[in-house]
Amino acid sequence: MSSPINHPQTDVVVCGLGHMGGPIAAELTTAGYQVVGIEKGPFWQYTTDWRQDQKDDEWAIAVERKFDHPLYISTFTIRNNMNQFALPVRRYTKNIQYHALGHGVGGVGVHYGGSLGRFSPWSYQPVTMTKAKYGDAGYSTILSNVKGGTPDIEDWPVTYDDMVPYYNSWEKAIGVVGDQQTGQDPFIPNARFPMPPHPPTPYATIFKNAVQSLGYTPFSTVSGLISGGYVNQYGIGRNGCVYCGWCGGLCNYPCEVGAKTSSHVTTIPAAIATGKFDMRLESYVFRIDTDSSGKATGVRYYDSLGNVHVQPAKVVFNGLWGYNLIRAMLLSGIGVPYDPVAHTGSLGRGLTEGYYPATSSASVQLNVGANAYVAGNAAGGGYNIMDLNEVNPNFSHADDLTFMGGVNLGFGTYIGSGPNTFTTHLPSRTNFGSTWKAGLKDEKIPTKITATLSGTGPNLPLLENYADLDPHYTDIYGDPSTRVTLDWDANTYRVSNYLVNKTTKITDILGKMGDPTTIKKNIIPELAQHVDWWGHHMRGGARTGANQATSVFNKWMQCWTSENIFAAGEICDTFGDNLTAGTHVAGAMAYLAADGIKKYLQSPGALV
Amino acid sequence: MVLFLPISRREFIKIGAAGAIGFGVASAIEIPILENSINNDNTKISQLQSQITQSQGFLTLNPTEQVIVEALAEAIIPTDSTGPGAKEAGVVYFIDHMLAGNYGKGGNYFLRGPFVTPQSGSVTVMGAVYPSTTKTPITYSAGTITPRLQAGTSYQYAFNPREFWRRGLTFLENYCTAAKGGKFETLSSATQTTVLQEMFDNSATNTALQTAFEGPNAAEFFNEIHDMVTAGFWSDPLYGGNQGMVGWELLAFNANYWGDDIGLGAVKLMVASTPTRLPPKSLGQLQKEGGGI
Does one domain contain both B260 and B236? Predict the structure, then answer.
């Protein structure tokens, strides 16, 4: 191999130009700093690469995943406990309804579903606020009831109030859609969104009216698919959603009009416009280099021809995707790796999975029809309630302290997306032949639709769940893959069972929505299956925290052991709420990290 | 155990190979083939042959495979009183074309070793023993949930999807011949349904099935068949299936048409409480119109 190509030092090197890297690049360049951005994929342009007449192609997008990360470059392995052999994720499949990894500027943001929402004050201080409500004894009871492992729960090092200005910056940058008068919900103060809600579907309105009549407080689903033309604080303008329906439930589709909020249309163009942003595409970061004091000196990366480049920098921002963020630090010997036996160390610790496949649900038939093929996951004016959640100070489940958190109950679009991935079309013992086929006729334009409500709760950080380096599998360059050791706790089952089985609340809501004689409940037993594949929203593993022994980053997202390494992402969450998406939370975290980097560049040292 | 290509129960044809390179002695090279009758059903092949045109034909499926895939596709999406099925949609061409290209090659797959079979018992990999960790099935009001063996079990094979299909089709024919008295395409519709359900069930006590399917197992192959047949029925016609958009017509899937020219449009469809059935529009149509956004 030829000798490395050395670049001159820059102020900040940003690894990964997705949801996290974009805000850092925009904030630091507009503040006058020189920034180098390194991205393993290309820079696709929606005007040419994602034209509607080529992109709305379910085979290419949802099965072949042609705009997603190719697994032959790198993958990760997963097992359910530390005694097992971890198997690698070898392919994306049509009937595995999970996110693929991003590839290219925008990262996963290119094809996410656009579901957003702030975390609540409780989400940032779950220990303190749960104890305040149920007492130390009540909190101990909750912890003693956790099934599947030993809880390892901590408060964030920041409060919700600390995060409000950063939420505001992120929301302006991407044009968050939600209620402009009442904000997210009454339990999340000071949230006012820059873009108005999408036009509500009739069935969403039915949900809204039903819960309102019961005294709950519905709020417009917070969305990252903008509802009209919008110009952000950097002067970058975009078009509104056209409700094509292709970016439905499975979150695979890039947007042909740029309405989906991703860094490639929001923050990266702002960085480029400053003339201070040097973008290295199709370049793969493999090490963060440090000196003898532990400070980073810069990063090393491969270009697409395999040449090694050395990019020195005053600050390294690690904005890589979830597991890769952890892996880059493990490979570079930065931080203290978690020891799952002694329960010491912090890097890899506290890993959780934000998405849960099986929750109890209840359904009712409505007296309206719908066209399931229009509107997307987060477009179409849905409504949520958080009344039945710890987020609501008046909510209490003191009668049942077997779980933590509560329900985020939402009702929005019917489904959206193309026919290949509808659940009724997936392989099963009965999903073939003439009877099945007859049932498919016009099935997605029904004159009456069935509304299903289900609740998910937070997965809790457990001492048994963590990430480390795999001893067998490597990426295409020969470096070890991330190994994920993870299994479900019972919390989400219990939250949804509490809602569906133990209270009458769900029946009350459904009874107001449709024909009460058609209400059906489906109770799923807890811990019925292992974590199967890998999911939407891996959280923790590189936590921010107040305690250096159990966290990797301090409250400014500054690495405890390397003062000039900063990071952001859901993987840095101290605790995860039960919103299905944590993108919004991570976006605010990126703006906080940008603030931290500015402070550090002005006055290097440990930030407090 | 570490799974490399299984070599059990293969038949070997010995052929003389006088030119065997590097050895002074002419020896026989053993060429393994999967056990399979190579007697083709000439009538069915002729029927398929009659549909071949200058722009519609087969790129990778051999004549034996063409007939089985066609029969599988028709069993999953039959032509019946509901409307056209897999046959009219040209699903067999879709599967052929996809297996001939990136999909068949596993272009985006991670296909490096070691290859370990997911299993509930203990495994030993490179000298390290990983003990058995199983969960018991849970029965509840709506049925029984069989726990997965472990995470990440999808596709732990050393071969690509084209090979997966070649093997799976051979196993299927062997199973049908052994257990049902004839190859899949010759069986009655009712028996074909039974076979597909048996594949889905993949029962450990179905000895003939377990013997026939060495990997992919029967359930994995059923899922793959189902995925690809439905994809051939519902993907854009540019890929060779869904011809005449018959798959979309069945579902009333509008694809890339929202009725803008007749005073509708996506927003109106979205907020309507009475749905409108719209004809679909394909990518090819959109491109020809120079349309789209």
Answer: no
Measured between CA atoms, the residue of chain B closest to residue A368 is B273
Query: Which residue in A45, A52, A53, A524 has the most chain B C-beta atoms within 10 A of its own C-beta, making it the best mutation to test that interface?
Result: A53
pLDDT at position A415? 56
Question: CB distance from B277 to chain A under 8 Å?
Answer: yes
Amino acid at B124: T
- Would the CB atoms of A51 and B125 count as touching at under 8 Å? no
Q: Are residues B163 and B236 in the same domain?
A: yes
Q: Is residue B124 part of a domain?
A: no
Tell whether B86 and B195 lie within a shared domain: yes
> Are B204 and B260 in a shared domain?
no
Average pLDDT across chain A, whole number: 90
Q: Tell me if A229 sits within 8 A of A390, measured CB to CB.
A: no
Residue of B nearest to A255 (CA): B293
B1 touches chain A (CB under 8 A): no
Whole-number pLDDT of residue B157: 93
CATH of span A5-602: 3.50.50.60
Q: Residue B279 belongs to what domain range? A: 254-288
Orientation of helix B189-201 relative to helix B161-175, angle to 10°: 120
Chain A CB within 8 Å of residue B227 CB? yes
Provide the sign of the torsion angle of the four alpha carbons A219, A224, A225, A227, taken in this order: positive
Which ipTM value was assigned to this complex? 0.93
User: Any idea which residue has 């109890």 for tokens?
Assistant: A360
Mean of the per-residue pLDDT values for chain B?
Answer: 83
Q: If you measure CA to CA, which chain B residue comes closest to A446?
A: B275
Q: Are residues B209 and B268 in the same domain?
A: no
Mean pLDDT, residues A580-598 taken together: 93
Report d(CA A305, CA A213) in Å as an integer: 63
**Domain assignment present for B284:** yes
Tell me the residue length of chain A.
Answer: 608
pLDDT higher at A407 or A509: A509
Residue with token string 């059935």? B277
Looking at the fold, whether B189 and B223 belong to one and the same domain comes out as yes
How would you classify the pairing of strands A352-353 and A538-539?
Answer: antiparallel
Chain segment B108-149, per-residue pLDDT in tens: 999 999 998 877 677 788 787 887 666 666 676 667 666 666
